[in-house]
Structures are given as structure tokens and as C-alpha cells.
Amino acid sequence: MISVLVADDQALVRAGFRVLLETQDDLRVVAEAQDGAEAVSLARQHRPDVVLMDIRMPVLDGLEATRRVVAEPDPPKVLVLTTFDGDAYVYDALKAGASGFLLKSVPPEQLLHGIRSCAAGDALLAPVVTRRLIEQFVNRLPPGRTAPQLEVLTARELDILREVARGHSNAEIAAELYLSEATVKTHVSRVLQKLGLRDRAQAVVVAYETGVVTAGGG
Q1: pTM of the predicted model, to two decimals?
Q2: Which residues lie in coiled coils (predicted)?
């Protein structure tokens, strides 16, 4: 059972999410928050697996609420939902610690998939949100330079990090690098562990910030 906290300042939106989620046997809404401050408090109280977080909310916006939620010990995954697909929101949400970013206009089945993916530790971006949005808002090192923090990675692990940053799934990475999916999954776990990252979303940000992957290239 995946427990979910819904944070949105519109009561009808929260109710709609609750109705949708409660049609699923493996999803359960444990609380609803009408602003960012309440989301932080309820996340601390209920310890949900996933927080559905709106960006524009009163008292405390979703970005700052996300930062505070993920700063807690053993934090939940945060899936940011918004009506805005502006580039800055995407990067800011990922930098704040979100594990995924979806537009509220996505079909219900995609939202359900997003919740399950985030709970499983996979990064998730809306189909309309591609890596160019992240590229535009990160400060990368000059080409050819590697940040000291990446020296702990093997050559194969760097290959895996590049593929993750390009948005490829484990299956796609396995096909590209001629590896089994199980091996790719192990490599991804080691990359996250060595770099002290929570999930693939953070790995994407690090890859661009350190120059492992660059705009329009790899």
C-alpha cells in the first residue's frame, strides 16, 4: 500500500485526487493540505510514501515546502503537480528535492503511474518536459572537466549516469550498453549511493551541473 499526502490550495482539486486514488487497491490518501506549511506539518505527522505537491499555494509555496519535507529524516518522495510547464519551475522543483514533475492536465492513468514510479524510486518528468529544460537552468563546469565528487565513480558508472541524465529507463540503458536490466539496476543503485543522492531525479541534476552531460550533447 502506497500512502499519499495531497497538497493543493483548491478543495475541488484535492477531492478529485482523493476520488481517483481511492479507486486503486494499492494507493491510499492519508491526509490533505491546503497550503505548503500544512503540507510540511502533515508530512511529518503521517509519514506518507509520496506527497503530491502543488507549486502555487498560500502561506508557503510548493517549492519551499518540498525543500522542508525532503530535509526530514527518511523523507517521502515528492511529486510536483502544476498547471505551469515553465522551465524554471521544472529545474527549481528538482533542485528542491522533488522526485518528479507532472502537469495537472495529464491523463489519470499517467498520474497513477507517476505516484507508483516515485514511490519505487524512479524519477518522473512530464512527457512535454525534456532535458533541455534542465540544461537551460544549470551552471555546468567547462566541457571535459569532472567534478571531484564524481571521481568515486567507475567508468561504467559514469556511463550509467549519462544515460540516466538523458532520461533513459533501465531497459533502454541495458539495450544501449549491452547489459542486463538487473545489472543496470545495480549500477544505478551504486551511483546514487556513492554520490549520496536520493533518486534518479537528483542524478539528472548532478549530471548536468558537473558537465557529465551537456546541452545538446553527452
Answers
A1: 0.71
A2: none
